[in-house]
Amino acid sequence: MRNSFLLFASIILISFTSLSASLARGTNEVQHIAAVTNTASAADMENLASEEISQDDPDHEQKGMTHAAAPTWLVIPFVLLLLMIASGPLFYEHFWHKNYPKIAVILAILVVSYYLFVLHNTHGPVHAAFEYVQFISLLASLFIASGGIVIHVNKKSTPLVNIMILLIGAAISNLIGTTGASMLLIRPFIRLNKNRIKAYHIIFFIFMVSNVGGSLTPIGDPPLFLGFLKGVPFFWTLAHNWGAWLFALGSLSVIFYFLDKRNKPDEEVEEEVYDNKITIDGKRNFIWLAVIIASVFIDPNIFEWVPGINYDGQQFSFIRELIMLSVAYLSYKFAKKDIHERNEFSFEPIREVAFIFIGIFGTMMPALDLVGDFAKSEAGASLITHNTLYWGTGLLSGFLDNAPTYLNFLAAAMASQGASLSVLPEVVAFAEGGVYYDSVLDLKAISIAAVFFGAMTYIGNGPNFMVKSIAEQVGIKMPSFFGYIIRYSIPFLLPLLVLVWLLFFY
């Protein structure tokens, strides 16, 4: 209860501080205008009006017109948080598990405070706060709603049965998102393999269901949804990403088959009788899941009639988040207790994700700013090709949130050809091709990399960390942060990503 209060208080503190600083800035600007009104000449007033119009430009913050750039050393809290996430469970497990909420919140507040009171930049913290609330509302509602559903697959665990579940999960991730598919299927996948479960089962679930699978629709993964909001046509991803999607899933299935074929049960057990049936309890929670997925589109950027919070030229939703959090509460309140017991449901996985990612969202702003500023600079723009977009978007998506990374590189790719991400017709033209050089391949490289490379680390995509936490909760020994990268990402995923690059982009 105390940790839940700490989480809530942290979100409120960061959001309130950001908005307060924004209001203070607005008040100072009004006072400045009033002073000039009393003393300025007509020419001065004309210049002031031009200045104020520029402040209303939606891109004025990105253009560096109102605040200083983040210094390079400000990425230290982000790097420190990543190192502690990686080393804490290995070298100081008791201290880490007891104190990671405080560490994440303190590091986030340090960076946010520097932005607000030293750089006088309210744009970054306010956007990060809104994006975090959107992120955690979706993850929490899907996690809690799916916790009231028990799927039991009464089949013998074999490599082919496991691959079938992974591929089904990858397919439905395009309908209910990688988070929804992960939360729905991870528990039945673990139960199916209860006598032979190993870490690689969970890792390949993360590869295929939590990441690669969701690359065909904007619903599948957050960066693709942001692209849709900016103007990329809804079926663009299906039309252009299906080849890489099939190749990646097919390759991962073959690798998994040979790994799983060598796996033997942990202990001798009596031969079970299988009727090959799939039973589902808690079916009414599918209605809750449907409400959550439908609410994703209740956004003022999609429908003008949806109320939103207008800040700095951008509309932020809040109705959607209220619906999601209400569904989370109602689905938990009305779920059958025996279903939660059979699912071994607890709030620990979502609690861990909530605190870790409040630290990540709060501390990664300088890294994103530095990457974005370089990509949009003359030197950065000269380096932009579909090859550098693939590797740049990809490698950063493994360690930063892949949604803002997608937007940063798409903005840079468009800016390098004189187009703007904030102009809808230009985004559509960039996606459809024929106007800007190689633009379809550029967008495809950014889209595939943002989704596929999210599987490189536990923090590359929201579901990764949650799946890991659920697995650990039921007693599966998972590799550490670096163990995941060294034992699985580098030997299995990285060669696949190289092949995807050679076949589809090189």
UniProtKB/TrEMBL annotation:
<keyword id="KW-0812">Transmembrane</keyword>
<feature type="transmembrane region" description="Helical">
    <location>
        <begin position="6"/>
        <end position="24"/>
    </location>
</feature>
<feature type="transmembrane region" description="Helical">
    <location>
        <begin position="481"/>
        <end position="505"/>
    </location>
</feature>
<feature type="transmembrane region" description="Helical">
    <location>
        <begin position="353"/>
        <end position="372"/>
    </location>
</feature>
<feature type="transmembrane region" description="Helical">
    <location>
        <begin position="72"/>
        <end position="91"/>
    </location>
</feature>
<feature type="transmembrane region" description="Helical">
    <location>
        <begin position="103"/>
        <end position="120"/>
    </location>
</feature>
<feature type="transmembrane region" description="Helical">
    <location>
        <begin position="132"/>
        <end position="151"/>
    </location>
</feature>
<keyword id="KW-1133">Transmembrane helix</keyword>
<feature type="transmembrane region" description="Helical">
    <location>
        <begin position="286"/>
        <end position="303"/>
    </location>
</feature>
<feature type="transmembrane region" description="Helical">
    <location>
        <begin position="198"/>
        <end position="219"/>
    </location>
</feature>
<keyword id="KW-0472">Membrane</keyword>
<dbReference type="Pfam" id="PF16980">
    <property type="entry name" value="CitMHS_2"/>
</dbReference>
<dbReference type="InterPro" id="IPR031566">
    <property type="entry name" value="CitMHS_2"/>
</dbReference>
<feature type="transmembrane region" description="Helical">
    <location>
        <begin position="163"/>
        <end position="186"/>
    </location>
</feature>
<feature type="transmembrane region" description="Helical">
    <location>
        <begin position="239"/>
        <end position="259"/>
    </location>
</feature>
<feature type="transmembrane region" description="Helical">
    <location>
        <begin position="443"/>
        <end position="461"/>
    </location>
</feature>
<feature type="transmembrane region" description="Helical">
    <location>
        <begin position="315"/>
        <end position="332"/>
    </location>
</feature>
<protein>
    <submittedName>
        <fullName>Citrate transporter</fullName>
    </submittedName>
</protein>
